[in-house]
Amino acid sequence: MKNKGLRFTILLLIALGWIILMRNMTTPLNQSSILSFEFIGTAANAEIFLNNLETLGHTELMKLSIYLDFIFPLLYGAAFFYGSAWACGRLANDHPLNKFRILSNMAVIAVACDFLENLALLQLINSGPDDTYAGAAFIFAGIKFLLLTIILLHFLVTVIITAKEKQKAEPEL
After folding, report:
1. Which pTM does this prediction carry?
2. Low-confidence residues of the chain: pLDDT under 50
3. What radius of gyration do the chain's Cα atoms show?
4. Hey, is 141 helix, strand or coil?
5. Nearest CA-CA partner of 106 in 152, 67, 66
6. Which of 51, 92, 112, 121 yields a CA-CA distance of 20 to 30 A from 86?
7. How far is 13 from 84, CA to CA, in rounded Å?
8. Alpha-carbon span 14 to 32, nearest angstrom
């Protein structure tokens, strides 16, 4: 797996580009409403939310946003995979933070949770409010964000550690 850092950078830029494209395609939908919908939690909350979307005429934009979001997990999943591979590759083999297999599994699980969350959200829109779908979206969104936070924190800590180790290894001028 050569050029892990380059692959990570390219995939991260593509993912960021996809976010910008998604947001432009779903304007004037309030972008924070997507996050609110992911964590709606109950059928009663979903009903209120969906009625507000209907009043604003944004139901189709929300559907479009969810359909476009099926591509995004593949992009961020691959970016986190290569980012973790790059970060772990900078550590010594016996370093306690060199846990690429665990991190890559976490990225795959986060992507799967995102897909399942999107399916639950589409069911909420298409079939009407239901506690099962609202609860499923809440749980899968929570798991997804927890795993991505752990992966991101690992990445940041690893970069800081390796930068400090590199700085110690360089002779002073």
Report:
1. 0.90
2. none
3. 19
4. helix
5. 152
6. 112
7. 16
8. 22
